[in-house]
Amino acid sequence: MTLKIVHLADTHLGFSAYRKITKDGLNQREVDVYNAFGRAVDKILEIKPDLIIHAGDLFDSVRPNNRAIKFALNQILRISKNDIPLILIAGNHETPKLSETGHIFSIFEHIKNIYPVYDEYRRINLSLNGERVSIFCIPQFKNRDEFNSSLDKLRKDSSKDENVDYRILTAHVGTAGLYEFRMNELNEQLLPVGMLKSGFDYIALGHFHRFVKIFDNTFYSGSTERFSFTEANDEKGLLEVTLGDGGKEVNFVALEIRGMIDFEPIDCANKTPGEIITFMKEMIAKEDIRNKIIRLTLKNISSHIYRTLDFSEIKQLLGDALHFDIKTDVLEEEIFSSYKNARIDVLSKEFSKFIENYSLDKNIDKKKLLKMGLKYINRVEES
Ligand SMILES: [Mn+2]
Asked: What SS3 class is residue 223?
């Protein structure tokens, strides 16, 4: 007999961004993110799998707003009513660091067919389609010690020789070692890829936002929407996994979501403001930008050229987009001169002083480190 699983992750309900508002006064990106999950559930009900695994970050935060909670509950009830078991492991975005805070996933307790897993390692045994299926679950933990002890439990538990037809692992983790897939978030859990190699028929990972096959049995489904420009070129969707005597089949099912374009950076060195605008026009004309999220990067632009750019013209060029970002990578010399002239703000100054007085290993290029640091500080302050 075969076993059909839908694997998805990182829906981030409650995420919002940009200023665009819907007719009903809601943040448009927040609504986009709900729609993506709604469509995912539509697809799942078409596919009618034996089991659904959501590998974490259903919610974007520890305290999602009431709309996000209501939306999630309604979709999860659709699944529950269709008698499809859903394993829901918690991700780092929705897991609080303090136990006093309480976990939002507790609202899913006692709903038929729904198995929320949070704050503890769990093995769930189900009988599906006449098959005995064990699902080993590693959700996000409050701290590293709890995570490590969950891995010990997993090692012991999964090495037991029991009568099981299918053994499935799901975890909300980045990976470390031979293959590195990380989101570079402070609380992310990292699993050595070596641990993934043995003993499971399928491994459903969440956390990394792109669809990736790591090993024949190990996949990130990726997120259901795009949450940053680094994801601009990713297709988003869910995985339809079929396990059976005839082997394993994994199909990526794409979801229809809003377009995002991160244009190739425009090198502004030796260009006049007029030439930069002309270049922009040509670039934009090649793409359909309507209702999409757009980013234009101006590389090597000096601040006096930037200040003389015709922004009303740029606004007109990009007016059909849902949102546009203009990113500037300022000339290297300017970062230093602005530091010397003390025109920059307190945090940058503090950081520069710190680097200047700090004794670093000789191999480390102070100038480069300072430049990188200032760039990050600028980026954070801009956003
Ligand atoms: Mn995550």
From this structure: coil
Out of 209, 239, 254, pick the residue that ends a domain.
254
Residue 142: domain span? 3-254
Contacts of 289 (CB under 8 A, 6+ apart): 261, 318, 320, 321
Q: Per residue in 201-222, pLDDT tens?
A: 999 999 999 999 999 999 999 9
| Listed residues 254, 271, 303: the one ending a domain | 254
368 and 279 in a common domain: yes
Rounded distance from Cα 364 to ligand 1 centre (Å)? 32
pTM for this predicted structure? 0.85
Q: How far is the CA of 207 from the centre of ligand 1 (A)?
A: 4
Q: Which residues of 66-96 are buried (b: 16+ CB within 10 A; e: fewer)?
A: ebbbebbeebbeebbeeebbbbbbbbbbbbb
Query: Is residue 345's pLDDT more than 90?
Result: no
236 and 308 share one domain: no
**Rounded distance between C-alpha atoms, residue 130 and residue 124, angstroms:** 16
Residues 194 and 272 in one domain: no
H or E stretch at 217: none
Q: What is the largest CA-CA distance in the chain?
A: 74
Residues 51 and 173 in one domain: yes
Structure token digits, residue 160: 């037991």
Band the pLDDT of 344: cuts 50, 70, 90: very low
State pLDDT tens for residues 73-116: 999 999 999 999 999 999 999 999 888 889 999 999 999 999 99
Q: Cα–Cα distance between 309 and 274 in angstroms, integer? A: 8
Kindly state the tokens that stand for 47: 């596919």
Q: What is the 188 CA–ligand 1 centroid distance (Å)?
A: 7
Decide if 255 contacts 43 (C-beta within 8 A): yes
Same domain? 97 vs 146? yes
Q: CA dihedral in degrees (344, 347, 351, 352; nearest 10)?
A: 10
Expressed in angstroms and rounded, the spacing between residue 86 Cα and the centre of ligand 1 is 19
Q: Which residues contact 234 (CB under 8 A, 6 or more apart)?
A: 209, 210, 211, 222, 226
